[in-house]
Amino acid sequence: MSVSICTIGELIVEFLAKHKNQGFSQPGEFLGPFPSGAPAIYAAQVAKLGFESTLFSCVGNDDFGQMNIERLRNEGVNTDGITVINKAPTGSAFVSYRNQFERDFIFNIPNSACGYLSPEHLDESLLSRCTHFHIMGSSLFSFRMIDSMRKAIKMIKKNNGTVSFDPNVRKEMMNIPEMQQAFDYILEYTDIFLPSEGEIHYFSDQKNASETDIVKQLINNGVKHIVIKRGAEGASYYHANQELHIKSNAVEMIDPTGAGDCFGATFVSLFLAGYPVEQALKYANASGALAVSRSGPMEGISSMEDIAKFLAR
Amino acid sequence: MSVSICTIGELIVEFLAKHKNQGFSQPGEFLGPFPSGAPAIYAAQVAKLGFESTLFSCVGNDDFGQMNIERLRNEGVNTDGITVINKAPTGSAFVSYRNQFERDFIFNIPNSACGYLSPEHLDESLLSRCTHFHIMGSSLFSFRMIDSMRKAIKMIKKNNGTVSFDPNVRKEMMNIPEMQQAFDYILEYTDIFLPSEGEIHYFSDQKNASETDIVKQLINNGVKHIVIKRGAEGASYYHANQELHIKSNAVEMIDPTGAGDCFGATFVSLFLAGYPVEQALKYANASGALAVSRSGPMEGISSMEDIAKFLAR
What pLDDT score was predicted for residue B1? Predict the structure, then answer.
């Protein structure tokens, strides 16, 4: 069975403050609109590697939405699952960097077009062509969206497909109790779990549990493969009877947005396509490194050739 | 009784495309956030002239909203009627000029914080201090907002106050049947009507009726004062037994956004304060001219001194 990956969630435009510490409290210069949204970046990266990629989302009936659809189509993403709605404009994010690691955001997502995505927007024949469903935690911002995720999980699992989950936690979202419940529900069906080093602790009942303990517990609970993203420190892969650690590739950090999404898309695509775990991990790591070295959320996606060249340096 | 003017409606941030014909379909540079929204510009202009000015609106719990409140407060507007809500972000508008007269927009207003403004946000003691209520047609974008307008009209009229109405029509809004009904309702209570030359024809049942006929009919129906804004061609004032036309002041057109709002704010403030109609009209015209000569929606508001200086050139 060939790899066909779908994902569901926010497809938005992003505006980047031109200067560090510019903030949002006085007029300045912003660069944009850039196509953005974690699931959208993920979908574009999957397609860029040459795999079948489908994104389910909603955009507004405006130029931002049209630009996003065209961009994804040009990257090779199947955009038939993207609905244009009149009720709300395309979502947006304003980003201002304080330094390499800290950013300030103003999001318009739950009240934007993609916030209206609901189970009826998921075309079943399109969904039934997919062998894998990837879930971004950042997309679990509304009941409608969580219900859509449930529908997709059910359908994919019925067809013997697999599910991956990148918690992509936004601190401000963890206060929503429904979200914590959604996390528990999704983990039950997760085959490939892709937290960052800092996120893994959200997934333990015990305070101060070690990473190894949490990983062991998750595997006992049924998660088959765990990949921990450590950014500049590399990544780790855990399986019931396997453990693998790789180092990172040194790059100049230009814009971290999208790096984790590119990493996840590359790992999941290659892993499902049958590449050896070590190679999938190395390529994923390189994909993340290439992403941070380019400005703009979706501007850092890489082809297999880009990654091979980068690793051959 | 001293003049105390309130208005209700959108308080948003605006981003201006840096280059002509830049559009929204590829990344470019935008300048912003600028405080914006027709009623907000109006309120700032009233305060800048030295009159009591109150704006009722909602902003999101974000830096854009905070910036807007602080800016209005600095201009002298009473911001006690502005509610910060968590449900939605501060509204926004992206503007790209094609030429001096044509603009492209992407708005996020009805789904933004100010779209949640409803009658319970109108503090009655604050409202009861106002002697005049100004309505912007651009603000009639939701049932909640229209209901709020009704509440304010009722209260102001009960206290023997007056109402002005600037249709500020957005073509895309005229398709909403509720809006047409709201127009009819508001006109019944309107003391000062401030359409632009191009808008007056929306207010006639007869096709191809002349401006004079429409004005006569509106006055017969109870509108006491009509001011028609003609931009670079000046303005006209009509009353049951008076008619007055003034020419415009030549200025370089930099950014037309907000000019009509500044014109209206200046005319209404001075007229209510007892200035002779001709002077109110001249000052309003100068206020509009000064507004177009500055970039940014609220950046072109003028003090009495600014206007006097401009007219003395």
Answer: 57
Give the CATH number of domain A4-10+37-57+75-82+118-312; options: 3.40.1190.20, 2.60.40.10, 3.30.365.10, 3.30.930.10.
Answer: 3.40.1190.20
Q: Return mean pLDDT, chain B.
A: 94
Which 132-171 residues of chain A touch chain B by CB within 8 A?
none
Identify the helix (H) or strand (E) that includes residue B211: helix B211-220
Mark yes or no for CB contact A32/B28 under 8 Å.
yes
Distance CA A110, CA B64 (A): 17
What are A239-274's pLDDT values in tens digits? 999 999 999 888 888 888 899 999 999 999 999 999
Q: How far is B94 from chain A (nearest CA, A)?
A: 10
- Is B62 in Cβ contact with A24 (below 8 Å)? yes
pLDDT tens, residue by residue, B154-164: 999 999 999 99
Q: At what angle do helices A277-292 and A259-272 cross, to 10 degrees?
A: 160
Tally A–B CB contacts below 8 A.
82
What H or E segment, with its residue span, contains residue B159? none
Of the CA atoms within 13 Å of residue B39, those in its CB half-sphere come to 32
Number of neighbouring beta carbons within 10 Å of residue A293:
16
- Whether residue A15 and residue B15 make contact (CB cut-off 8 A), yes or no, is yes
SS3 B45: helix
Residues β-bridged to residue B91: B12
8 A C-beta contact, residue A216 and residue A239:
no
Q: What's the whole-model pTM score?
A: 0.92
For residue A227, the SS3 value is strand
Here the ipTM equals 0.89
Asked if A15's CB is within 8 angstroms of B24's CB, the reply is: no
